[in-house]
Amino acid sequence: MRSDETTSPEENNNGSLSNLKDIGQIKMPGVDERIFCLTIIGQIEGHLILPAQSKTTKYEHVIPQLLAVEQNPKVEGIFVILNTAGGDVEAGLAIAEMLCSLNKPSVSLVLGGGHSIGIPIAVSCTKSFIAPTGTMTIHPIRYTGLVINGHQQFDYLQKMQQRIDQFIYSHSQISKEKLEHFMFNTGELAQDIGTILIGQEAVDSGLIQAVGGVKEAFKELNNLITQLSQPLS
After folding, report:
1. In 3D, which of 7, 29, 27 has the Cα closest to residue 16?
2. Catalytic residue among 116, 124, 128, 205
3. At residue 39, what are phi and psi to the nearest 5 degrees?
4. In sequence order, which ranges of the chain are alpha helices (DSSP H)?
5. Within 13 Å of residue 34, how many CA atoms lie on the same side as its CB?
6. Active-site residue 151, yes or no?
7. Cα–Cα distance between 210 and 215 in angstroms, integer?
8. Distance from C-alpha of 222 to C-alpha of 205, rounded to nearest angstrom
9. How far apart are CA 147 and CA 154, in angstroms?
10. pLDDT digit string (tens) for 28-43?
């Protein structure tokens, strides 16, 4: 066999390590993958690099993967698994906007937690699930650091909050009034305002569509793919 037709284990390992460093995955979605799995783990990192000890999902890793999925005719659906504490607002919204604008069905599953800016990502998919023990924390935008020109800064944060809220209630069944009630609840979090929803509570509120796990999420995604592939009568 000619040398140009083979790839050494060392070359495969180097390529995998390069992909892990560059895009956060061992490989980009290949032509043989019918369903692409995207994981949103830890904090969502945006323009600022978080400390090395933090577990992060980098938005510059996620965006090229979603572009590759959209351009790959062999990929028929996207399965998004979330266990995130939230993170950068702009990065989280960018990921959510990309997911909801893909021309392919998608299913999200909240395992552990889908907090803060993870909520828009969870509701951006065609169908959303949460594990029975999964949690979601709804709260207003938090700001840390030096505030200059307080009135202008407040207006900016208010507009950003409106962007997040509008995305959430336009991609789920929760009402604007109920979302704001959860967000500004003062009786649940000891050092903050907001609400924690667990499993079925997230579904009852209209935020998430169903309680389930990997089996239920995959079944629903396969159903969506099948429906999309059927010709119109």
Report:
1. 27
2. 116
3. -110, 130
4. 9-23, 59-71, 89-101, 118-123, 150-170, 176-183, 200-204, 214-229
5. 7
6. no
7. 13
8. 26
9. 9
10. 555 567 899 999 998 8
* Amino acid at the residue 125: C
Q: 53 - beta bridge partners?
A: none
The residues that bridge with 44 in the sheet, in sequence order, are 57, 87
Residue 210 phi, psi dihedral angles, 5° rounding:
-155, 155
State pTM to two decimals. 0.81
CA-based torsion, 116, 121, 124, 127: positive or negative: negative
54 in catalytic set? no
Closest C-alpha among 100, 71, 231, 104 to residue 172: 100
Whether the pLDDT of residue 2 is over 50: the answer is no
* Tokens, residue 39: 């994981």
Specify the pLDDT at position 152: 67
Per-residue pLDDT tens digits for 136-159: 999 887 665 555 556 666 677 778
Residue/partner pairs of 168-175 with CB below 8 Å, 24 or more apart? 168/119, 168/120, 168/123, 168/207, 171/96, 171/100, 171/120, 171/123, 171/124, 172/123, 172/128, 172/206, 172/207, 172/208, 172/209, 173/206, 173/207, 173/209, 174/205, 174/206, 174/207, 175/206
Distance (Å, whole) CA 220 – CA 109: 11
Q: Which is the catalytic residue, given 61, 115, 139, 171? A: 139
Mind listing the domains of the chain with CATH numbers?
A: 23-229 (3.90.226.10)
Pair of tokens at residue 132: 């029975």
Query: What would the mean pLDDT of 65-71 be, rounded to a whole number?
Result: 92
